[in-house]
Design a protein that fits this description.
The structure holds two protein chains of two kinds. By secondary structure, chain A is α/β, with parallel strands linked by helices. Chain A contains three helices and six strands. Chain A is globular and about 30 Å long. The relative contact order of chain A is 0.18. Chain B has one domain: Histidine kinase-like ATPase, C-terminal domain (Heat Shock Protein 90). Chain B is 36% helix and 26% strand. Chain B is built from four helices and five strands. Classes of the chains: A alpha/beta, B alpha+beta. At the A-B interface, helix 2 and helix 3 of A face helix 2, helix 3 and helix 4 of B.
Chain lengths: 105, 154
C-alpha cells in the first residue's frame, strides 16, 4: 500500500484540511514532505490532518511532521491531528509528540 | 515471568527447537513495506495479538530504515534480516554492512529541541522487550530485538 494525500484549503477557518490515506514510511515520507512544503509555500496556515485512513506511520513520517511544525511555529501556526488510530496514538504517546501536536478526537 | 522461571526456561531452551527464517533484502525504501507484511505474518502465526503485531511492524521498519539510510547507500547491495521463532518469543536481527555509528550518540528525544531524525532507535526500545544494538564504525550495525508472547515480561 502506498500513500495518497487529499488537500483543500478551508477559507472560513483559514487552515489546510489534509487527509492521509495509506502508509507513511521511508518510501513515502518524501512525498509527504514535498506536499507539505508546497502547501506552506502557497499559504502558511495551520494544517489539520484527518488520520482516519492513515494505516501506518513511523519515525520517518513523524520527522516530516516535526520539520513542518517547526516552520509553522515561526508564525504561531499549528498541526492538528484528528481521528488517530490507537496504534498511531501509542507511537505519539511514547515519543511525547502528543504534547507537541494538537490531538483531537 | 520471574527470574527463576526465566533461568529454568533458558536452560530448557537449549534442547527446544528454534525455527530460523532468513531474508536478504535490497537496500531500497520500497521494500520496507514488504518486511512489515512479513513480520506481521510471522507474529500472527505465532499468536501475537494485533497491538503487538503493530509494535513489531513499527520496530522492524525503524531498524530497516536505519539499515537503508545509515548503510552503504548502495542501492544494488542487500542487508540481512533473521527471525528466530521460539514458543514464547520472537527475536529479530537486522544487520547491515554499512558505516556503523557510535552508540553513545543515541539519545532520548528532547521535546524542547526536536530534530527530524533520531527517533527510530528510541521507538524500537520502547516497543520491544529486549533490544541490543551492536555498531562499529566502518563495520556495520546489527540491531537485535525480542518480544515475548505473554504479558508477564515487561
Amino acid at each position: 500500500m502506498s500513500l495518497s494525500i487529499v488537500k483543500n484549503f478551508d477559507f472560513e477557518k483559514g487552515l489546510w484540511n489534509i487527509q492521509l490515506n495509506g502508509e507513511v514510511d521511508v518510501y513515502t515520507a518524501g512525498q509527504l514532505k514535498e506536499t507539505f512544503i508546497s502547501l506552506l509555500e502557497e499559504k502558511k496556515e495551520s494544517i489539520k490532518i484527518d488520520a482516519s485512513e492513515l494505516e501506518y506511520i513511523d519515525s520517518t513520517g513523524l520527522g516530516v511532521l516535526i520539520g513542518i511544525l517547526k516552520r509553522l511555529k515561526q508564525d504561531n501556526k499549528n498541526i492538528i491531528i484528528i481521528n488517530i488510530k490507537p496504534s498511531i496514538k501509542k507511537l505519539l504517546n511514547i515519543t511525547g509528540l502528543d504534547k507537541i501536536f494538537v490531538i483531537e478526537g | 515471568m520471574n527470574t527463576m522461571n526465566k533461568i529454568a526456561k533458558e536452560y530448557t531452551n537449549m534442547s527446544i527447537k528454534k525455527d530460523h527464517i532468513k531474508l536478504s533484502i535490497p537496500n531500497r525504501p520500497e521494500y520496507v513495506s514488504v518486511i512489515r507484511l512479513t513480520v506481521a505474518a510471522i507474529a500472527n502465526r505465532m499468536g501475537f495479538d494485533i497491538e503487538k503485531i503493530e509494535d513489531f511492524k513499527v520496530a522492524i521498519a525503524e531498524a530497516c530504515t536505519n539499515a537503508i539510510t545509515h548503510g552503504k547507500h548502495l542501492k544494488d547491495d542487500n542487508f540481512n534480516i533473521e527471525f528466530i521463532v521460539e514458543d514464547e518469543k520472537l527475536t529479530i536481527y537486522v544487520q547491515d554492512n554499512g558505516k556503523g555509528y557510535s552508540a553513545e550518540k543515541l539519545e532520548s528525544p528532547d521535546l524542547n529541541n526536536l530534530r527530524e531524525g533520531g527517533l527510530g532507535v528510541f521507538i524500537i526500545k520502547s516497543l520491544m522487550d529486549e533490544v541490543d544494538i551492536v555498531s562499529e564504525l566502518g563495520r556495520g550495525t546489527t540491531i537485535k530485538m525480542s518480544k515475548y508472547l505473554g504479558d508477564d515480561f515487561q
